[in-house]
Amino acid sequence: MRRFGNVSIAAVTFVALLCGAWLLHRGTGTQAPPQPSPAQARAGGHVDRPAAAALPRSAPARVRIPSIRVDAPLMGLGLTPQGSLDVPPAARKNLAGWYAAGTAPGERGTAIVAGHVDNAEGPAVFFHLGALKRGSTVEVGRRDGSVALFSVDAVEVYDARDFPDEKVYGAAARPELRVITCGGRWSAGTGYQGNVVVFAHLTGSRPATGAAGE
């Protein structure tokens, strides 16, 4: 379990919940989402962009990742009775969520955003997350009108059996963000067996230029 304030979250995220639902429905002939390449993992020679100072707490409203054409509203997520992170409604494929009992994106610490890779009808909000590159920008529109800007440090994929909860969920001294969806090995019986995780840190902020919500 990983503790955020007074709330703990299980090491598993949502690997068992509707991961690969579209592929299961359509069969293995359907194109799978991209998976991260080894080049996008954390590397010793990679130099992060300078971190920005933490922002005051404000709930996030929208996530945008221009390089993979993500532009989606965010809902608050809690925990399941088993202690794992809950998920947005599967029917709303262009909807992501954030762990509302934890760090808000832009605050000092580790903020968590999660969404489906697909649903029974087709690709969902984070279908292309595995194609994201180091140095790409993730924008989080916040309820206070600001936009938190994050730079991607790494994109990695983990098998559910070896999911590194300390690395993904652990406390951070600066404002950091994790964006998570399903990925890794795929089984025709159960779907994806792991998760794609994007690691990013805050590099700046700006006033919002559009609506904060949907």
UniProtKB/TrEMBL annotation:
It comes from the Bacteria. Keywords: Hydrolase. The keyword Hydrolase applies. This is Class F sortase. Residues 29-49 are annotated as: Disordered. It comes from Streptomyces apricus. NCBIfam families: class_F_sortase. One of its GO terms (molecular function) is hydrolase activity.
